[in-house]
Design goal:
By secondary structure, the chain is of the alpha/beta class. Helices cover 30% and strands 20% of the residues. It has one domain: NagB/RpiA/CoA transferase-like (Rossmann fold, 3-Layer(aba) Sandwich). Strands 6-3-2-1-7-10-11-12 form an eight-stranded mixed beta sheet, with helices on both faces. Strands 4-5 form a two-stranded antiparallel ribbon. Strands 8-9 form a two-stranded antiparallel sheet. The radius of gyration is 18 Å and the shape is globular.
């Protein structure tokens, strides 16, 4: 018995998925291989650029992520940002359920935390808020502003629902020529690394709903 050859489109999709997995794994491996001192130096440089961008964007509600798998640690940066103005609010994402968008719960340095099923801490209590700027962790990323997370699609669903200004935050070791973005992928509005701050440069026009232009 003979079977029909796979359709070219199916081959292309499978090849793209495999390439994206390889890019994600390579970026994670390189980041996890950094020494503690090297990561600290890169983190300090990145935070210096991020401080300046937050001053320009002036968010009222800032979403960020607890550092996971050697991601940039933004906790001190966000703590300083909060201390500068008592009306400001910071928030951490909370996974509601698999396959759903995340929610953001207000966070303070002294609030009670508990780990989620991935072991990532989030606030136990507090009101749910909608950030106008979200700091999004980057594994692999490209100059167009597209990123690879961990493959669960949580941030793509969350950004599509909330439409905040999205600031990708990561180390240059994750930069690639292209992450081979898929139709569901949402580009970052800004990219911040230890090398500086940049607006992504799309190669192709995309039709999207307007996002917070703050």
């Amino acid at each position: 018995m003979s079977f029909p050859a796979p359709a070219p489109a199916a081959d292309a999709c499978a090849n793209a998925d495999a390439a994206r997995r390889a890019m994600r794994e390579a970026a994670l491996k390189a980041r996890l291989a950094l020494s503690g001192e090297a990561r600290k130096v890169l983190n300090e440089r990145l935070v210096g650029h991020l401080d300046g961008l937050l001053g320009r964007l002036a968010p009222a509600v800032l979403g960020f992520c607890w550092p996971y798998r050697a991601e940039p640690d933004l906790r001190d940066c966000v703590t300083r940002w909060l201390a500068q103005d008592r009306t400001r609010c910071a928030a951490l994402p909370v996974v509601i359920d698999k396959g759903q968008a995340m929610a953001f719960r207000s966070w303070a340095p002294d609030c009670a935390m508990q780990p989620d099923r991935h072991g990532i801490p989030h606030p136990v209590a507090g009101e749910f808020v909608v950030p106008d700027v979200v700091l999004v962790p980057l594994n692999a990323f490209d100059a167009e502003g597209f990123r690879l997370g961990y493959g669960g699609g949580y941030f793509d669903r969350t950004l599509a629902r909330m439409r905040p200004l999205a600031v990708g935050v990561g180390f240059e070791l994750g930069r690639v020529a292209s992450v081979l973005p898929q139709p569901h992928d949402i580009a970052m509005d800004w990219i911040v690394t230890e090398a500086g701050t940049a607006r992504p440069q799309p190669r192709h026009a995309r039709v999207d709903q307007p996002r917070n232009s703050r």
